[in-house]
Amino acid sequence: MDAKTVIERIKNLKEYVIEYELPEDFVFSGNVPFDLRISENQITAKVVAGSQKEADMIVRNFFTD
What is the pLDDT along the chain (65 residues), one digit of tens a residue? Predict the structure, then answer.
């Protein structure tokens, strides 16, 4: 990836709010890579990403991997 592409990506990053239901079998281990709030099995995550789709993917991958 060249420097121009990286700079453009950084300029286009935004903060997205993702709501996700906490999986029953989830156990925290390690660091959480975004701002996270949990209330009654409902997760609200603030994620910096290039698009809403990317932000959704980041949260889903964190809770399913």
Answer: 799 999 999 999 999 999 989 888 877 777 888 999 989 889 999 999 999 999 999 998 888 76
C-alpha dist (Å) from residue 1 to 15, 25, 30, 39, 46: 23, 38, 29, 39, 26
Residue reference for tokens 């453009």: 8
DSSP secondary structure, 21-60, as one string: EPPTT----S--SSEEEEETTEEEEEEEESSHHHHHHHHH
The structure's pTM equals 0.78
DSSP state of 62: H
How far is the CA of 50 from the CAs of 20, 26, 27, 31, 53, in angstroms?
A: 19, 27, 28, 21, 8
